[in-house]
Amino acid sequence: MASAAEQLAANLNFGAFAKATELKKRIWFTLGALIVYRLGTYIPLPGIDPIVLKDIFSRQAGGLLGMMDMFAGGALGRMTIFALNIMPYISASIIMQLMTAVSPQLEALKKEGESGRKKINQYTRYGTVVITALQAYGIAVGLEGMRSSVGTAVIDPGLFFRFTTVVTLIGGTMFLVWLGEQITARGVGNGISLIIFAGIVANLPGALVGTMELGRTGALSTFFIIFLLFMSVGVIFFIIFVERAQRRIIVQYPKRQQGNKMTGGESSHLPLKLNTAGVIPPIFASSILLLPITMIGFSAGQGPEWLTTVTAYLGRGQPLYLTIYISLIVFFAFFYTAVVFNPTETADNLKKYGGFVPGIRPGANTAAYLDKTLTRLTVIGAAYLAVVCLIPEILISRFSVPFYFGGTSLLIVVTVTLDTVAQIQSHLLAHQYEGLIKKSKLRGRR
Predict the structure, then answer these.
(1) Are strands 261-264 and 151-152 parallel, antiparallel or unpaired?
(2) Average pLDDT value for residue range 46-57
(3) How many other CB atoms sit within 10 Å of the CB of residue 33?
């Protein structure tokens, strides 16, 4: 079966794609949904002065706002209806995963199957509304306090402006949640990931133009720009290699006699990814570390003295910043891996269905073996995340390279691309199987 699947996958071509009508509909739907998303990133919030806002964001480009604007595809910098993007939903999803790990009620709900999953998704949406409302109100208050040399960011501050901002941003975020779910159900790939992916990719041409402009003005040498491009390609290949790497643990199932026939006895494998945590650790680490820089920027240097001191030590590229950044990435890599993979639960499921790892006793011994193996893999995965994120971080701080050449953005772009291509291949493979089944039925009738 495996060799046949590999043979079919090797024979996938544009001819097969042309015949896959259902797949073409899914791709067109995905592209249309992403176009709608990009159009929404240019619809501004009411009551904002765009000139003042552009001036303010140009001074905040190196902080948390710059990173969040990268994820939002420029919508935050333009302060549009999609300014918060899909990030509140991701935060709510992470909180629900953490709650599921510590709450017996939610854990039992998770085990109920499809009905439990729908309830958890509904709770996640409620959490998204609450998080979005809090962040939107904070943005409204922050905008009212923003000033530049040309005036204030808000034309008419007050309760009405705050109310309209909160309602508009909640509506924009929940629309993106719905749009992402539609892409997942009726399109190709994970809708939430594709929305973030589209935001990053849409601003890549501008980042390339900005980098070339730095070279033209002499801020960056031609040699360094060429090195940067080759380094980005090398990092992409490295990410692809590691993201596809996995440790396959052999699982054996015993033979069983049913009547006069012997069934079972086949072997399978349990895949453990080298990087189970994905892009969550770099995102969390960057958000925590860039928060002081953003706060001092909002206060325009009028904050408490201790905040100014902390910001100086945590400046981008500083030794303390890089040390804490790596430490946070490693911590969140282990923490999130522990949340998404439960060795004890996996061992119990294997035991329940009669599966066992050769040479390991079922139950507690299997759980300990899986935990030990996963810990070793996470050590390598955390080191990989640290290296991928550290090198571009140094380039960003030392040479003012745009965020889009950073490790986090490249991780998101590459992983989402791999996932989408894998889904397209699975659709093509299913179409190939359907064609083979139809041909065999026709031959059987003859």
Answers:
(1) unpaired
(2) 78
(3) 20
